[in-house]
Design goal:
The chain is an alpha/beta fold. Helices cover 17% and strands 35% of the residues. A three-stranded parallel sheet has the order 1-3-6, with helices on one face.
């Protein structure tokens, strides 16, 4: 994730969620966003949920609401997160 406001960070965020699913015990884990503008040109997709609720207990946290922005840049009728 770059958080530069130019790069589409959606694929990197989705990949991070898959990493949590594949490597970590997701419970009580945090996906942290440092200051920046994270442009989302597509929906952040749910990693395969067929084997359980991988995101129970996962927090998605930004450094500060004033300097950490998730900027939707997808279709006007699109969905930012599908978890």
């Amino acid at each position: 994730m770059k958080g530069d406001g130019i790069t589409d960070d959606a694929p990197a965020i989705t990949a991070a969620l898959y990493t949590f699913r594949d490597i970590y015990n997701i419970r009580n884990s945090v996906l942290y966003f440092p200051a920046g503008t994270y442009r989302l040109g597509s929906t952040i997709l749910n990693a395969d949920r067929t084997e359980g609720d991988f995101y129970s207990g996962l927090a998605i946290v930004g450094e500060d609401p004033s300097n950490t922005i998730l900027l939707w840049d997808g279709p006007a009728d699109g969905t930012m997160f599908r978890l």
